[in-house]
Amino acid sequence: MKTKKPFFKKWWFWLIIVFVVIGVIGSQGNDSEPTVTKSEPAVAKVDDAAATEKPAATEKPTSKPTEEPKETMITEVGQTITTKNFKLTVESLEKPKGNDYVQPSEGNEFVEVGIILENISSKDYMVSSMLMFNAYQDSFSINEDLMAHTLDSQVGTMDGALAAGKKIRGKLAYQLPKDWKELEINTDFTVLSFSSDGEIKIVFQNK
User: Fold this and answer.
1) Counts of helices then strands in the chain (DSSP H, E)
2) How many domains are there within the chain?
3) Which CATH number characterizes residue 144's domain?
């Protein structure tokens, strides 16, 4: 009678053992390898609505309408120009002949410009012909002729007090060559009103 071999002496038993050992070794080898975790780059989430939204249009500053320049030149007798504080009127342009005592130099003539200046402000001012009125004959600077002023005792020079709401009448008198072409008188109100009224030009052509 044959005796059975113990199962641990069977060949298949050892084959199983071999496979088990190989499996255990393989699993340990895999466990010993370091695990590398790859971090995915952060991606900023973009709001579709914000991405498609157009930037608000920048409003362009609206340009102020250009103000029409005010008239600042008088070229005819009777014209009037009004500034912030004053109203200036050229009343006359004359060429007095002189008298037995006062005559222009040979080849010259007297020229007088009559002016009315009204104070339309609430302040009092002092008018000065020397400070306010600068005259030019054919672009050359000239001064008033004091002798010519003596020809008309009724109208004085453009000098004196000018109270609020009042007027002053005077003349600017010059001695010019008879062939003069242009007389320009610059009235500078900045002397009185500290630049708020600017200047007025009086320009006459010799006719």
Assistant:
1) 5, 11
2) 1
3) 2.60.40.1240
- 139's CB contacts (< 8 A; 6+ apart) are 182, 184
Q: Which of 94, 79, 200, 101 is nearest to 155 (CA)?
A: 94
Please, which residues have CB within 8 angstroms of residue 198's CB and are 6 or more apart in sequence?
72, 83, 189, 190
For residue 62, tell me if it sits in a domain. Answer: no
Quickly count: other Cβ atoms within 10 Å of residue 180's Cβ: 18
Q: CB pairs under 8 A, 24+ apart, for 202-206? A: 202/73, 202/74, 202/90, 202/113, 203/73, 203/74, 203/75, 204/75, 204/93, 204/113, 205/75, 205/181, 206/179, 206/180, 206/181, 206/182
Query: What's the CA gap between 25 and 175, in Å, rounded?
Result: 131
User: What pTM did the predictor assign?
Assistant: 0.65
Is residue 82 included in any domain, yes or no? yes
**Is residue 33's pLDDT more than 50?**
no
> Looking at the domain assignment, is residue 36 inside a domain?
no
Which tens digits make up the pLDDT trace of 147-192? 898 887 788 999 999 999 999 999 999 999 999 999 999 999 988 8
> Is residue 9 in a domain?
no
Query: 109 phi and psi, to 5 degrees?
Result: -150, 155
Q: Phi-psi bin for 78: left (phi > 0), alpha (psi -120 to 50), beta? A: left
Q: Which domain holds residue 81?
A: 73-205
CB-hemisphere CA count at 13 Å for 87? Answer: 12
Task: Assess whether pLDDT exceeds 50 at residue 36.
Answer: no
